[in-house]
């Protein structure tokens, strides 16, 4: 998948950075036959391997490759197969889609825990390090914030410095939602921070939605223009 960033929109530059990293990971995973996810707009599999997809699955293009890996098949990455997508004009336009995907991610984690069995070899490690740890980041972030507040309340040595650093990061993140008004490298750094926070907030809300069983398999089309 090739994403087309919008000129002058800092959040789309952050999205581009994220997808460059994701593509790099996919290339290396696919080169070893353990590609974890496909792109719904652009993937193929052998006809005899398609056994359908449970109707309640939200993120089908992640579930199908993981099922194949659990069955012992190789999942490959083909760099010559390209699809193009316009990035949305605002970070908020993407948020709802990420919440839906987050709900689907935790749904799949519950269904594909067997892939973490070391008997699956490299696929188990890649699933844990690339996906499972990624899905746990919102909870790591919340734990870190609670730990900082606890240190401040207890008056622990160095807690003021840690608290000030945390406040600086939160301020930078908040500024990132208005990063088009910030100049140069500071604006780009703020945009990346806001993008990271937005992704993890969406994951957390997605987890809550999955726990409530409130995520539908249908979705609204994300505004692209």
Give an overview of the whole structure:
The mean pLDDT is 85. Helix content is 60%, strand content 3%. The chain has one domain (2-212). With 225 residues, it is an all-alpha fold. The two termini are 19 Å apart. The chain has 6 helices and 2 strands; from the N terminus they run βααβαααα. Helix 3 crosses helix 6 (184-212).
Task: Give me some keywords for this one.
225 residues, mainly alpha, two-stranded parallel ribbon, 6 helices
Helicity range: 55-70%
Taken together, the total number of domains comes to 1
Secondary-structure element pattern, one letter each: EHHEHHHH
Count of helix runs = 6
Name the overall outline.
globular
Largest sheet: 2 strands, parallel
Strand content: under 5%
Q: Could you tell me the number of beta strands?
A: 2
Q: Biggest sheet, strands in spatial order? A: 1-2
Rg of Cα set: 19 Å
Task: Point out poorly predicted stretches.
Answer: none
Mean pLDDT: 85
Structural category is: mainly alpha
Distance between the termini: 19 Å
